[in-house]
Specification:
Layout lengths: L3 H10 L5 H10 L4 H14 L7 E6 L16 H9 L4 E3 L5 E3 L2 E6 L5 E6 L13 H12 L14 E7 L2 E6 L6 H4 L25 E7 L3 E6 L14 E6 L3 H9 L5 E2 L7 H5 L4 E6 L4 E6 L9 H9 L3 H9 L3 E3 L23 H11 L5 E5 L7 H13 L5 E5 L5 H4 L6 E6 L5 H8 L14 H12 L3 H18 L2 E7 L1 E6 L2 E2 L7 H4 L2 H4 L1 E2 L2
Length: 527
């Protein structure tokens, strides 16, 4: 990851890495000793956090239906949740895990029983101490079969939960070597009594307390005086997120100084921003991808030949060139790319083939236009991408009708509700996590209504397989099933493109956009 040396420098400056640890990890990345020492010197002198002020971000994806219940977080709310929420663990820049409320993690040899030791001295915003019982209640609420939580799918394998002193003991139905990573899911904010009493109260143990909650407009927090790690996070007096769905308005707000950072910058304006002296563009390759989703259980998409026809009618190279302008790579109709460990190599790349598309379309027996709903809330340039799809499909004799949807309310009214629409996924830390969220039959976020017993069996087997080579082979078979039988069209994997003000200090590239959502809590104002 290109920003990893910068991230290590920040961790050294914050006291999270010793000099020896820094030099060792830098050497592993191929950084010379001379350059590594210069980074240490710069970190010691330049990366001193400053306190005070109001840190603001312009984020896409806000809607009037947004809710403080972490189980319902979508898009913008996931960023705000990391301002006021605290988690068992968090992802590091190199894809590892950082202990948060869980200070120790252990498991049985078969990865079926996991123990998380809860840190002492962590306080909720209401003054109560975080206990193992609160963590158990949180996981119970999100894993409940009746839960509508976005994390329900990844927690479906839990057989039992219990608190034993400071320990949270999770027993699984089947082994899962990736379970600790799942605890970093942005829905799993630890709340008093798990949020069972009032999940939308906005109380957790994060660096900021919720003081403003205007869905679709703005959300804000003020520094929590008793935050357990105040020397590492929460440098600004206040943080504020402005819901700015329009790309032009987001860029204007950054240029005008109304916000200090924005996400999802469209590739077509990157060069313009680079010419502004006080702004900086941050790009990061990762697992984020853009999709067109088809419901596999809804006509006409319940026909396998029609789904295949649409996949073959998609000109991916053209889309990457015209929509991403090179800031990304082509997709292959499964939600995994080389950013993931154990990426399955050797799967043939699907290419635009209007003749084969026409064959499968005629075989499907369908006729008439196919309605595709799109909005730039789905991803930057989604409407243009849908129109490109319309044009390439026409070459195969397939008529696609593009319906542009309002940006406000897209995630609550269109995504996962309409049978053919544009969307995006920011990716997850592991393949098992990604597949459990998007493709497992029982997941509420299975947004293609893909129900495949063989796939579910392989997923369970892969999660419990401790041999990496065997797990990689299982992931490969799963990828082929999704690619050939599933309802997701993945035209492209896009780089994350953020833009920040030169008044912002402490920004380093991480796994995801805006420092994996932690930029507001880990950055500071230089002036």
């Amino acid at each position: 990851m290109t920003h990893e040396p910068d991230y290590l420098s920040l961790r050294f400056a914050a006291g999270k890495l010793s000099r020896r640890e820094f030099l060792g990890r830098a050497a592993a990345l191929g950084v010379s000793a001379t350059f590594a020492n210069s980074l240490l010197a710069g970190a010691a002198n330049a990366q001193t956090p400053k306190r005070g002020g109001i840190l603001r971000a312009g984020i896409v994806g806000g809607a009037a239906t947004d809710n403080l219940d972490p189980g319902k977080f979508i898009e913008l709310m996931s960023y705000f949740g990391k301002c006021w929420g605290e988690f068992l663990v968090a992802l590091t820049a190199d894809g590892g895990l950082e202990p948060r409320i869980a200070e120790e993690i252990g498991s049985s040899k078969d990865a079926k029983v996991w123990t998380f030791k809860i840190r002492q001295g962590v306080e909720f915003h209401n003054g109560k101490s975080v206990t193992a019982e609160d963590v158990v209640a949180t996981l119970e609420r999100h894993s409940n079969k009746e839960s509508k939580s976005g994390a329900q799918g990844i927690l479906a394998g839990i057989e039992s939960l219990k608190a034993d002193g400071r320990d949270v003991i999770i027993t699984l139905k089947d082994p899962n070597a990736e379970l600790p990573y799942l605890m970093a899911d942005y829905h799993l904010v630890i709340q008093p009594n798990g949020g069972k009493d009032n999940p939308a109260e906005g109380i957790s143990a994060g660096p900021y307390k919720v003081v403003v909650n205007e869905p679709g407009v703005r959300h804000g927090g003020e520094r929590f005086a008793n935050f357990w790690q105040s020397d590492k996070m929460g440098f600004a007096d206040q943080v504020e997120i402005l819901a700015i769905n329009d790309t032009t308005a987001r860029v204007s707000a950054l240029q005008g100084g109304q916000v200090h950072m924005i996400n999802k910058v469209e590739s077509k304006v990157v060069d313009l921003i680079k010419r502004v002296p006080n702004l900086k563009v941050e790009t990061l390759s990762g697992p984020g991808h853009y999709v067109f989703n088809m419901f596999c259980d809804t006509a006409p998409f319940d026909n396998a030949d029609l789904r295949m026809a649409l996949k073959l009618a998609l000109d991916r190279e053209e889309m990457v060139d015209k929509i991403l302008r090179g800031y990304g790579t082509v997709g292959n109709d499964f939600p995994i790319n080389v950013a993931y460990p154990l990426f399955p190599e050797g799967i043939e790349q699907r290419a635009f083939d209007p003749d084969k598309a026409k064959f499968h379309y005629q075989k499907s027996g369908h006729s008439g236009p196919i309605l595709l709903r799109a909005s730039n809330a789905a991803f930057a340039g989604a409407v243009d991408a849908a129109q490109l799809f319309q044009q390439s499909a026409a070459k195969a004799g397939i008529a696609i009708e593009v319906q542009r949807e309002p940006e406000d309310g897209y995630w609550s009214g269109v995504w996962n509700k309409q049978p053919f629409c544009a969307a995006n996924w920011r990716g997850r830390a592991t393949q098992g996590w990604m597949y459990s969220t998007t493709c497992r039959s029982t997941s509420p976020w299975n947004d293609t209504h893909f129900y495949n017993d063989r796939f579910d069996k392989l997923l369970t087997e892969a999660l419990g397989e401790l041999d990496q080579d065997k797990r990689k082979n299982l992931y490969r078979e799963m990828a082929i099933i999704v690619r050939d039988e599933g309802g997701v069209l993945v035209p492209m994997f896009a780089q994350y493109i953020d833009a920040i003000s030169d008044k912002l200090g402490g920004y380093v590239g991480r796994v995801d956009s805006l420092m994996n959502g932690y930029a507001l809590t880990q950055c500071w104002l230089e002036a």
